[in-house]
Amino acid sequence: MAVNVSIPLPRNGLSIHNHSTKRSCLTTSPSTLRISCSGVGELDGSECKGRLLNFNGIKSVACGILAACAVTSAAFPVTAANQRLPPLSTDPNRCERAFVGNTIGQANGVYDKPLDLRLCDFTNEKSNLKGKTLSAALMSDAKFDGADMTEVVMSKAYAVGGSFKGVDFSNAVLDRVNFEKADLQGAVFKNTVLSGSTFDDAKLEGAVFEDTIIGYIDLQKLCRNKTIADDWRVELGCR
């Protein structure tokens, strides 16, 4: 992946030194500073090569931009609506991999191999998913109805259109999960962390929100979903 950022500069305001650095990848024309980075976010430590400005303010801004690009693009490749999902995995055991989980870089959703659970059927699974880490898992259009998913970690999972009817998410960490258009009727979010998760057009009739852990801004977004029962809206503090 390549990232390019252009910053207008005065023609005579900066001095350029011709030496390379491991962190910066800067080239310049008389009026524009162009920052380019190839392989940003890869786990093998790819280096950018180029020139370094001796102007600390611009250098800091440039490095900050590239760092932000690296985190956004590498950690969670399926956040933007205009991005395409990767092709469905051809691994014949891809659904069973959920029972092992993904423990690499769980906080950021970075993985060595995609955990592709799309179209898998885990209906009434009562033991094998409990406590598993499903970081950055692709779960769209999968069925988890009636499953025991207590204590699971689903950092940056993509669950758009998935079916989670009656799922027990008690004590789970559902951090930055995309539940858009998912069916969560009767799901239990008891003592569940819902930081950064989105529920746009999700079905939440009968869902239980007991002692749910959620930030103020995330709560306001959740409260926009009108399918949440009135008593739980009061419990959550929806206005």
The low-confidence parts are 1-82
* Separation, N- and C-terminal Cα atoms: 43 Å
The CATH class assignment of the largest domain is Mainly Beta
Q: Kindly state the number of beta strands.
A: 5
Secondary-structure class = little secondary structure
Q: What's the domain count? A: 2
Sequence-ordered SSE layout with sheet pairings:
Blueprint: E1 2-8, E2 16-17, E3 26-28, E4 32-38, E5 52-53, H1 56-75, H2 216-223, H3 230-236
Antiparallel strand pairs: 1-4, 2-5, 3-4
Protein name: Thylakoid lumenal 17.4 kDa protein, chloroplastic
Keywords: Repeat
Organism: Lotus japonicus
Overview of the structural elements:
The protein has 239 residues and is low in regular secondary structure. The chain folds into two domains: 74 residues, no CATH class; 158 residues, Pectate Lyase C-like (3 Solenoid), CATH 2.160.20.80. The protein is 15% helix and 9% strand. The radius of gyration is 22 Å and the shape is globular. The two termini are 43 Å apart. It comes from Lotus japonicus (Lotus corniculatus var. japonicus).
